[in-house]
């Protein structure tokens, strides 16, 4: 009897509908307030009036964060950074969510949330130290409520959920005090949504009504793996299976991202539990500076998404409505140039860590074993100094 060849996985006839042209444009369920052409839209559930100051602030944030990304990429190419995780094209998703935060809200990032770090007041130079390999992150999470970058894919979702449960038990949720009620944000990408840690975090967050917003930047590529290999349905719909709402927002629209994030954060602060926000965007650059995206994606997709650039669409809207002019642009360019200069010179001047620093911050309290290792290593280093005399 001739065996029947295995045709491979049957994804079903509905897959083309979910991940076809409709999926490419986000689908009819996409929350959008500003079109790629810079036209203002209104939404029944997520609509806000933005002041001119807010709009110019969003634009400034995105321009400066993109300059940070550009400078860091150049520094890596010149051998000054070991690696860099680019955010090119994802500025609106990060700035929109970052500016919706209140000071007491706590953020658990991945390794790409440079825009959120900017909104939380983390010095960009501190980010470069991590990627230069001279420290593990120099900022104090207690000062900015912005946790250290998490390299292990998806682990921060559990950290965020646990922290949110603690905030809940501390009575900092649902009090009605806007300066006390706290939300927690877990950032991750579409690739991390396939990790067990993320799904376990969903379960605990739903079970305990934890005040956490799961903010997924779906840039459609988990390194070289496309989103259609990871999910049969749009990612935001997964939330329903865990018992909490999900929403998909145009991640290249800073206005819509801000509005959706603000609503999800407020829902968490009030004690209504978790929300999954899928910011539908595109990774215009490489996964990291060690990656070559030309090996696994086509130029037509990149060109298609260039037309949806988050900075360009807001600039069109601002100019059309007379909210920025050439003087504003010139001032912003100078600010970006100054930032670039500070990052270049500051990165090169970052001091190398002392070899014994590897023993710092291993445990909250130093153990006898660790102390013995530290002392032994110090004696070993001292032997070189004695030999050189």
Q: What does this protein structure show overall?
A:
This protein has helices spanning 15-19, 21-24, 52-77, 91-99, 114-119, 124-132, 141-144, 155-169, 196-208, 238-242, 254-269, 299-306, 310-320, 326-348, 368-387; strands at 106-108, 184-189, 212-218, 221-222, 225-226, 246-250, 275-280. The chain has 389 residues and is an alpha/beta fold. It folds into 2 domains: 23-39 and 47-348, Rossmann fold, CATH 3.40.50.970; 355-387. Strand 6 (246-250), helix 11 and strand 7 form a beta-alpha-beta unit. The radius of gyration is 23 Å and the shape is globular. The model is unreliable at 1-24 (pLDDT under 50).
Q: Can you give keywords for this protein?
A:
single chain; 8% strand; alpha/beta; Rossmann fold; two-stranded antiparallel sheet; 5-stranded parallel β-sheet; disordered N terminus; 2 domains; 389 residues; globular; 15 helices
List the helices and strands and how they pair.
Elements: H1 15-19, H2 21-24, H3 52-77, H4 91-99, E1 106-108, H5 114-119, H6 124-132, H7 141-144, H8 155-169, E2 184-189, H9 196-208, E3 212-218, E4 221-222, E5 225-226, H10 238-242, E6 246-250, H11 254-269, E7 275-280, H12 299-306, H13 310-320, H14 326-348, H15 368-387
Parallel strand pairs: 1-2, 2-3, 3-7, 6-7
Antiparallel strand pairs: 4-5
What does this entry show, briefly?
The chain has 389 residues and is an alpha/beta fold.
Question: Radius of gyration in whole Å, from Cα?
Answer: 23 Å
- Name the helicity range: 40-55%
CATH domain class of the largest domain = Alpha Beta
* Gap from first CA to last CA: 83 Å
Order of helices and strands: HHHHEHHHHEHEEEHEHEHHHH
> How many H/I helical runs?
15
Q: What is the annotated CATH architecture of the largest domain?
A: 3-Layer(aba) Sandwich
Q: Mean pLDDT across all residues, rounded?
A: 91
Strand order of the largest sheet: 1-2-3-7-6
């Amino acid at each position: 009897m001739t065996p029947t060849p295995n045709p491979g996985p049957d994804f079903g006839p509905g897959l083309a509908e979910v991940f076809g042209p409709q999926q490419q444009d986000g689908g009819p369920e996409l929350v959008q307030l500003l079109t790629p052409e810079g036209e203002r839209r209104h939404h029944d559930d997520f609509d806000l009036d933005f002041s001119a100051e807010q709009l110019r602030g969003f634009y400034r944030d995105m321009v400066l964060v993109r300059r940070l990304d550009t400078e860091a990429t150049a520094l890596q190419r010149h051998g000054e950074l070991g690696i860099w995780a680019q955010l090119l094209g994802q500025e609106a998703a990060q700035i929109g969510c970052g500016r919706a935060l209140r000071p007491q809200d706590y953020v658990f990032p991945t390794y790409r949330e440079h825009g959120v770090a900017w909104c939380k007041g983390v010095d960009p130079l501190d980010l470069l130290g991590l990627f230069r390999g001279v420290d593990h992150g120099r900022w104090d999470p207690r000062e900015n409520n912005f946790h250290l970058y998490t390299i292990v894919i998806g682990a921060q979702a559990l950290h965020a959920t646990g922290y949110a449960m603690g905030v809940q038990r501390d009575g900092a949720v649902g009090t009605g005090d806007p300066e006390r009620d706290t939300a927690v944000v877990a950032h991750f990408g579409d690739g991390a949504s396939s990790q067990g840690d993320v799904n376990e975090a969903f379960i605990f967050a739903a079970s305990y009504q934890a005040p956490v917003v799961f903010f997924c930047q779906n840039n459609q590529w988990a390194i070289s793996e496309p989103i259609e290999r990871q999910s049969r349905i749009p990612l935001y719909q997964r939330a329903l299976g865990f018992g909490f709402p999900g929403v998909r927002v145009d991640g290249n629209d800073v206005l819509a991202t801000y509005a959706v994030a603000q609503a999800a954060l407020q829902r968490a602060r009030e004690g209504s539990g978790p929300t999954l926000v899928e910011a539908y965007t595109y990774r215009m650059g490489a996964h990291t500076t060690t990656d070559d995206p030309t090996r696994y994606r086509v130029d037509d997709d990149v060109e298609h998404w260039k037309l949806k650039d988050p900075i360009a669409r807001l600039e069109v809207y601002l100019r059309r409505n007379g909210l920025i002019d050439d003087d504003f642009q010139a001032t912003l360019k100078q600010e970006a140039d100054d930032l670039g200069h500070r990052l270049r010179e500051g990165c090169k001047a970052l001091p190398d860590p002392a070899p014994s620093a590897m023993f710092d911050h291993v445990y909250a309290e130093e153990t006898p074993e660790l102390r013995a290792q530290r002392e032994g290593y110090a004696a070993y280093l001292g032997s070189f100094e004695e030999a050189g005399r």
